[in-house]
UniProtKB/TrEMBL annotation:
Keywords: Transferase. Residues 61-314 form the Polysaccharide pyruvyl transferase domain. InterPro entries: Polysacch_pyruvyl_Trfase. This is Polysaccharide pyruvyl transferase. GO terms for molecular function: transferase activity. Pfam families: PS_pyruv_trans (PF04230). It comes from the Bacteria. It comes from Thioclava sediminum. PANTHER family: COLANIC ACID BIOSYNTHESIS PROTEIN WCAK.
Length: 383
């Protein structure tokens, strides 16, 4: 069974995209075994330089660039020969908010799959928001031609209705809830460990430096204020990167530089440059309280039993966590700095109860993912 993965990555500098890919590949291997089939997985991969997170004789990685997308021997040949193409949209890229260039590439790869006659699976992801007429039309056309559509929250399901999707979507959750990690060693005493994921992109004001995501507050000032407040509580503060871009055109997204600068200024700990999503999750699992603006950093905390207050810059946060009954997300596009700090302070005080809530909500998320597993298994059996 030949499966091609698009808008996944085994070596993305964004560890959130990597977490989704690692989890998807593990699921495909498991489902293929249940279907009694051998599997060959091709990942049309991003050109980041890090070592791939996953390996195996059943795995083939192809670097994607403009020439590959346009060549008849590139994208078209790969989706044509595949039995199934799965698109996870980088988790949340099937939307207008990240700019036209990324969305056009996504539509190009989707419609190449449709034209090749290969079944397309829309893996659990955020859908929307779409604000432009052309993107709404193309999204509707592609979704209605897809063999299986899964979303990770109710807001995305509502977005499907608004777009005019005629099928029955699978209401699932985020695949990274199942990302493997190493649980921390038992700890006896010591200060409370607080993790803050600092978004380099938000520190820069977005891709164009003009408050691209519509934050209702001064993000760098908020982070500095939060660090100092947690230090004042006697906490051991860890600044945790989750998008690590050593060089290149996307260096504006790098969290590590921002974390290092702030760690030096405030005399706190900077977490290392993680080599994989599981390594990052294993580190986060050793903390007692967490907050961050990278959703998959927050998912790593949530799914490893750590109390977390997600700091949202888009509706994907509240959609995902709220769908599981975990209602502690604070929206930085509407809440001012005082409101965000109040939420962080309350969450820190209530961290034991938040951790207990997260455990219950995680079980709910795992149950919802089972619906995607079942639908995908049936599709694979029919190939």
């Amino acid at each position: 069974m030949r499966v091609c993965l698009i808008f996944h990555s085994t070596r993305s500098d964004n560890l959130g995209v990597g977490a989704l890919t690692v989890s998807e590949i593990a699921l495909l291997r498991d489902l293929a075994a249940k279907a009694g089939r051998e599997i060959a997985i091709t990942v049309l991969d991003w050109k980041d330089r890090r070592t791939p997170y996953v390996a195996g004789d059943d795995l083939r990685l192809i670097e994607v660039d403009g020439a590959f997308l346009k060549s008849p021997k590139g994208l078209w040949a790969e989706v044509k020969v595949a039995d199934l193409v799965i698109d996870i949209g980088g988790g949340d890229s099937f939307a207008d908010i990240y700019g036209t260039s990324r969305l056009v590439k996504m539509f190009w790869m989707k419609f190449a799959t449709h034209l090749a006659g290969t079944p397309l699976v829309v893996a659990p992801q955020t859908v929307g928001p779409f604000t432009k007429g052309w993107s709404k039309r193309l999204a509707r056309m592609s979704l209605n031609r897809s063999a299986l559509v899964a979303v990770r929250d109710e807001r995305s399901r509502a977005a499907l209705d608004d777009l005019g999707y005629r099928g029955a979507p699978v209401l699932a959750s985020d695949l990274a809830l199942r990302l493997p990690y190493d649980p921390p060693a038992p700890r006896d005493g010591g200060p409370v460990r607080v993790g803050i994921n600092v978004s380099g992109l938000l520190m820069a004001g977005g891709y164009h430096g003009g408050n691209d995501f519509g934050m209702a507050l001064d993000y760098p000032a908020l982070i500095a204020r939060a660090i100092d407040w947690f230090k004042g509580q006697g906490a051991e503060v860890h600044l945790v990167p989750h998008v690590i871009v050593p060089e290149g055109p996307m260096v504006i997204e790098d969290d590590l530089r921002a974390c290092k600068t702030l760690a030096a200024e405030h005399d706190v700990i900077c977490a290392p440059a993680f080599a994989s999503p599981s390594e990052a999750k294993s580190y986060i699992a050793g903390l007692d309280f967490f907050t961050g603006a990278r959703m998959h950093a927050c998912i790593a905390a949530f799914s490893s039993g750590v109390a977390v207050v997600p700091l949202a810059y888009s509706r994907k946060f509240a959609g995902l966590f709220g769908a599981l009954g975990y209602d502690h997300t604070v929206d930085a596009t509407s809440a001012d700095a005082d409101a965000v700090m109040a939420a962080l302070e309350q969450g820190f005080a209530d961290r034991d109860s938040l951790a207990a809530e997260a455990k219950v909500a995680l079980a709910r998320g795992i149950d919802r993912l089972a619906a995607y597993d079942a639908e995908l298994l049936e599709l694979m059996k029919a190939l």
